[in-house]
Specification:
By secondary structure, this protein is α/β, with parallel strands linked by helices. The chain is built from 13 helices and ten strands. It has two domains: about 160 residues, 3-Layer(aba) Sandwich (D-Maltodextrin-Binding Protein, domain 2); about 100 residues, Periplasmic binding protein-like II (D-Maltodextrin-Binding Protein, domain 2), CATH 3.40.190. Helices cover about 45% and strands about 20% of the residues. Helix 5 crosses helix 13. It is globular and about 65 Å long.
Amino acid sequence: MLRPVLSATIAVFLSAAALSPTAAVAQAYPAKPIRVIVPFGAGGPADIYARYLGQQMQSTLGQPFVVENRPGAGSIIGTDLVAKAAPDGYTLLVMSNTHTVNESLIPKKPFTLMKDFVPIAPINYSDLLLVVHPSLPVKSVKELVALAKSKPRGLNYASSGNGTPYHMAGELFKALAGVDIVHVPHKGSGEARTSVMSGQTELMIDAITTMAPIARSGKVRALGTSGAKRSSVMPEVPTIAEAGVKGYESTIWLGIMAPAGTPRPVLERLNAEIGKVMSRPDVREAWAKQGATPLIMTIAEFEKYLHDDIAKWAKIVKISGARPDQ
């Protein structure tokens, strides 16, 4: 009579022993709301896609994803906040190629990206759109380059801050086109767009996901897209390379990272859940209409992607001569 009971007890004991502490962590996660820090202003791609992803993750993981915008200093303020957070999976960072650029553009920071953070997963990437205020007497990239060459430092371009994709896209344009246009950093991408729409600054290279509707409204004039081929969102607009600035190519991409020391099982669970969202046909279709392409990578693949992007932008920072005070 005792043997079945004893066998059952042993089975339960062995089952509990087999569940490692790290596996137990993953099984219990998440047990409370997850804080998602976006170190950029409201209304930009990072903010929009962080909120969308948070909604999807909330329905699958059963806990709220609370998105907080903490812009400032080219993403450094919000990023440093996450670097100092507990590495428990309950504070996450939405990051972009701003972060990989800043590793060489702003080496003196309170954190080092690949030491103080661990990768989780990418989100998406999209092309950029070069636009000018309608009052500027140019209707093509070639005309813009000619005007800029005739007026050294006579034109201004807006960005959402030093080190952001919009800043570096502008510096790359200047370097390859051989023009001297003044960079005017703003506190966020929304403020930069408003500056161009109002005519305070003459041009901007912005994410096509947010700028395309503004261009269609006539508030700005689209001159070129930044990808290797024309965008399906605005196929009538040539690429910047096609329009005369040979070799030009630049994009904006987004990803998720966590403070260093976050348990591996938590990272793997988040990576798997984010991958499920990115692979959904409805997400791909909806984002394609906006000009965004979902990215799916393992943690190791995303880590390599980050290292490669840091090296790539270090070369571009050197070639362009970009400085954090420009």
